[in-house]
Amino acid sequence: MSASAGPVDSEGAPQGTPPASPSALDRFFQISERGSTVGRELRGGLATFFAMAYIIVLNPIILGAGEDKYQQHLDNGQLVTATALMAGLTTLLMGVIGNVPIALAAGLGINAVVALQLAPKMSWPDAMGMVVLAGIVLMILVASGLRQRVMDAIPNGLRRAIAIGIGLFLSLIGLVDSGFVTRNPDKAHTSVPLGLGVDGRLQGWPVLVFVIGLILMFVLTVRRTRGAILIGIVAGAVLAIVINAVAEIPDAAWGLSVPALPDSVVSSPDFGLIGDISLFGGFHEVGWLTGCLFVFTVLLSGFFDAMGTIIGVGEESGLADDRAHGQLPRMGRILFMDGVGVAAGGFGSCSANTCFAESTAGVGEGARTGLANVLTGGLFLLALIFTPLAKVVPSQAATPALLIVGFLIMASNVREIDWADSTVAVPAFLTVISMPFTYSITNGIGIGVISFIVLRAAVGRAREIPWLLNVVGLCFLVYFLLDPIEQALGVK
């Protein structure tokens, strides 16, 4: 006669059975400790890669659009290789060392500064050398503890506003990149900079793919479906491939990535740009004063872009500890790896690598550890030889994820701001609107910090402002007034 079954717990295991020991992978990445699972981490890693894979195509276009002092253009194939390689390596390092789901790649905004401000005054190797120097300075700031103290000096209200601003910024990026919102041309003679679709109407199959993908993601999110974002991206990509195969759609209508199965799924990477830098050559080209200003510009953009993203990911993932000034676990390592990313981007000649706000797409899928980064980084490295496949997913399939994430960030942070205190509410408001309207995380943080300092001083509460925040405000003042300062010093 068989023994009768004893009572079981909610998981179906006999009561009294000791829990299974976590695997080595679980212990290393603290997966169970952070309330996640391997499945969630892998889904998050995939979602992050799809949300930011456009950088493989976009970064070479931005850097290739400029030319250096000697009228030299960077090779597109070499830029694709450098962009994917450095994104993969730095994302892997952040995952293994920092253990956070924050991916890195060539920073938008910083690459425009490099291509349009630095390069025209020196050679490409000189410009990349200055990017490396900015990364080294960032690492020194982390080692000295100064960068951590700067982040700790940011008031909680501004910290929340930075996260919300990033959410709105991501939403605007998603709307623009999908074609749902477009820039009104100057010839239209209107003061309205953006409009719905083309001439105020939604036109074309690609926008329909975006709308269907967005609706699907919101429905799945509301129904609390696991993998909502990833399912939406994959479904949108499949729909785009089918539509593109049936309808006659110009490639330009899809933007950077055309949803068509390529003739060949592999391509040969060209590593010709890797390590082609001159560390101090730029100073000989433009002088030490102008050179230092260039390094300062890259440094400040990288510093606060990454800081805003780290805060946003920390708040959205629940990893931030409000009792410790919103710090994430291993914050020192995270900040140091961001500095490594800036230097690595310069070494690879693909501009500074920085933390990508699109990482919140993976966080929205449940990613909480660096295991998600391992998959994201691995996919970037695979893209070195499978670049044609990486370009199959169009922006219209991936960008709905940015709006979902923007909604989630706003919903979890807006109520935490003390709107009754105008010295907090006004800077928070300015921070939130400045990020999307100026298309820059750094600008939003700078405007918020300066307005916070001014308003606190105006009501007689200057003593409450941390001295380091005053230093940050002064740096931002120099940043915003850089053009007249250069003119006054005769370096422009």
From TrEMBL:
TM region(s), chain numbering: 44-63, 84-107, 127-146, 158-182, 202-220, 227-247, 288-313, 334-359, 371-390, 397-414, 426-453, 465-482
Subcellular localization, as worded in the UniProt entry: Endomembrane system
InterPro entries in the record: Azg-like (IPR045018), NCS2 (IPR006043)
Keywords, comma-separated and alphabetical: Membrane, Transmembrane, Transmembrane helix, Transport
Region of interest (Disordered), ranges: 1-24
Main localization of the protein described in the UniProt heading: membrane
Membrane topology according to the record: Multi-pass membrane protein
Family: Belongs to the nucleobase:cation symporter-2 (NCS2) (TC 2.A.40) family. Azg-like subfamily.
Protein name per the record: NCS2 family permease
Organism: Streptomyces spirodelae
